[in-house]
Amino acid sequence: MAFDYKNASPEALKNEYRRIAQAIGDDQFFTKKELAHLPAVLADGEQILAFCSGLMDSSTWLITLTDQRIIFLDKGLLFGLKQSAIDLDKVNAISGETGVFFGKISIQDGASNRTIDNVPKRTVVPFTNLVRDAINNRKHGKHTIGAAQADDPVARLEKLSAMLSKGLITEAEFTEQKARILQSV
User: Fold this and answer.
1) Which DSSP category does 115 fall into?
2) Closest CA relative to residue 33, chosen from 77, 86, 72
3) Which residues form the YokE-like PH domain (predicted)?
4) How far is Cα 178 from Cα 155, in angstroms, rounded to an integer?
5) Domain range summary for the chain, segments of one domain joined by +
6) C-alpha of 130 from chain center
């Protein structure tokens, strides 16, 4: 079942981020603010496949691969937010290089080439491979469960019911959202 990043508790988010970080080899050390902000920029049902951190434009960025796009987030040292994204359908190429301790990832789309330096060496190959696989899956119509459930009214109603039973929404909010979902069918 898809993970609900937008409505998850802080503890559930922390555990999910830890699971993803362990799978990719990232330490999450320099990107805690960006990870905290990430659910706010995700679309409903969008699933995180991987993330890593590195330097781009003299700042530390969180680079997040989802089932739909690659998101670049920099929360800034004191304030502000820089955010950009590349839809997976627009990525032309991804490449990686590793050095002794760090590596670099380059992502090209039709308009630009983004290079992320000082990426932890152990994350370069898994991240680039996952991007390549996600692009291939989208080209061949293979979407993750999260993306498929975003359009499924039954799954949306089940999710809404679970939110009500957990006390995350009120009965009035449940009734309003249920009516919207049923109208769209």
Assistant:
1) E
2) 77
3) 42-132
4) 12
5) 10-142, 152-183
6) 12
pTM: 0.73
The two three-digit tokens of residue 79, written as one number: 């304030």
CATH 2.115.10.20 matches 10-142: no
CA distance 140 to 173: 37
Length of the chain: 185
Instruction: Look up residue 98 and give its two tokens.
Output: 């590793």
3 state DSSP class of 26 = coil
Type of residue found at 177: Q
Alpha helices in the chain (DSSP H): 10-24, 32-41, 121-139, 145-151, 153-165, 171-183
**Grouped pLDDT means (10 residues each) for the chain, 185 residues:** 87 91 82 89 93 91 95 81 92 94 94 93 94 89 48 75 77 82 73
- What the block records as the tokens of 167 is 């006390």
Torsion over CA: 158, 137, 127, 95 (sign): negative
Nearest Cα residue to 101 out of 115, 117, 118, 84: 118
Which amino acid, residue 182?
Answer: L
Alpha-carbon span 42 to 37, nearest angstrom:
10
Instruction: List strand residue ranges (DSSP E) for 57-120, in order.
Output: 59-66, 69-74, 82-87, 91-98, 102-109, 113-120
Phi and psi for 148 in degrees, rounded to 5? -70, -40
